Amino acid sequence: MGKQLLHTVFWLFCSFFSLAVVAADSGAGETEDKTKQKTSNYQPLIERYILDELRSVRQDQQQIVADIEKKVANARLDASDRAIRYTSDTLNNIFIIITTAASILVLMGWRSMRDVKSKLNEVVETKINELTQEYEDRLGELEGKLRKRSQEIIDAQEDISRSNELHSIWMRAGLENNLHQKIKFYDEILAINPTDIEALIYKADAAYELGDYEWAFSLANRAIEQDEDYGLAYWQRACANAANGATQEAINDIKIAIEKAPKLVDELEREDAFEDLKDLEEFRALTPKA
Fold first, then answer.
1. How open is the CA angle 183-184-186, to the nearest 5 degrees?
2. The 3-state secondary structure of 222-264, one letter per residue
3. For 51, which DSSP code?
4. CA dihedral in degrees (23, 24, 28, 30; nearest 10)?
5. Does an H or E element contain 201, and which?
6. Phi and psi (nearest 5°) for 177?
7. What InterPro entries does the entry give (predicted)?
8. Domain end (from 126, 152, 175)
9. Are 114 and 200 found together in one domain?
10. Residue 32 contacts by C-beta under 8 Å, 6 or more apart in sequence?
11. What angle do CA 230, 206, 213 make, to 5 degrees?
């Protein structure tokens, strides 16, 4: 079943990639209005297909859980049957031994039949108690192992389901052009995984694109609180600071971002948010030399 899920995810990725390539090639010679119209025509079909695949994954997960519960129940029943059968056979053997021993003792004239009966009852009761306790311990241990294994399988299935759902939302967010709708998708991701720093950064970028620089600044701060070594979070906060006119704070954040992620230095000249900083000597000192 795990291979089938991986195959489905891989097939979905290839399908979306093919659709993206076809859309890019067919839209090269058309106007922007026609491109938006085609995107809006394909998007409901894509969303519907994704939802159908998610429903299929959930149904498969439910079937797996049902199968696991059935197997656990059968294993418990088989173990109980074996224990009862073994106990029954053992008791029969004990009674045979006891009968033989009693016959020998009678022949040998050992005390009286009352003493023999009392002793035999004591031996049988002790042996039965020992066997019962032993198999109770074994059954308890087996049940504990089965319960632990079942919980591990259920947890793994939940992780797979959650990962598939997050992947689906990320893909839908990538296909979305409306910034408000993108933010809704990022909120869905954060609702499932509140520590997803990537979702915070993308949400901050969308807020910046909408012109809400204070919101973008706040989201970037949240990302930095979660991971102080994530360079892109400082970069996003630098964009918000630059837009708000906090020039020195923006320069400081750029320095930290480059220190945490040195590859960002190549993006300095291409970042539109830093257009007003490019005339500053301190900013030019950060740019790579030609």
1. 65
2. HHHHHCCCCHHHHHHHHHHHHHCCCHHHHHHHHHHHHHHCHHH
3. H
4. 30
5. helix 197-209
6. -100, -25
7. TPR-like_helical_dom_sf (IPR011990), TPR_rpt (IPR019734)
8. 175
9. no
10. none
11. 85
In sequence order, the 6+-apart residues with CB closer than 8 A to the CB of 86 are 135
105's tokens: 């003792």
Please give the pLDDT value at position 24: 47
Residue of 81, 271, 1, 40 whose CA lies nearest to 175: 40
CA 173 to chain CA centroid, Å, is 19
The whole-model pTM stands at 0.46
Q: Are 218 and 237 in contact (CB under 8 A)?
A: no
Question: What span, in angstroms and rounded, lies between the C-alpha atoms of 208 and 238?
Answer: 11
Cα–Cα dist 84/135, whole Å: 9
Nearest Cα to Cα of residue 120 among 139, 143, 95, 140: 95
Q: Is residue 290 part of a domain?
A: no
Task: With beta carbons less than 8 A apart as the criterion, state whether 208 and 243 touch.
Answer: yes
Mind giving me the DSSP string for 75-142? Answer: HHHHHHHHHHHHHHHHHHHHHHHHHHHHHHHHHHT-S-HHHHHHHHHHHHHHHHHHHHHHHHHHHHHH
- What's the token pair of residue 106? 């009678």
Do 116 and 250 reside in the same domain of the chain?
no
DSSP state of 286: T
Q: What is the pLDDT of residue 12?
A: 57
Among 111, 142, 175, the domain boundary falls at: 175
CB atoms inside a 10 Å sphere around CB 157: 20
Mean pLDDT, consecutive 10-residue stretches, the chain (290 aa), reads: 52 53 47 50 72 79 81 75 75 75 61 67 82 83 82 77 75 78 85 83 85 86 86 87 85 87 81 79 72
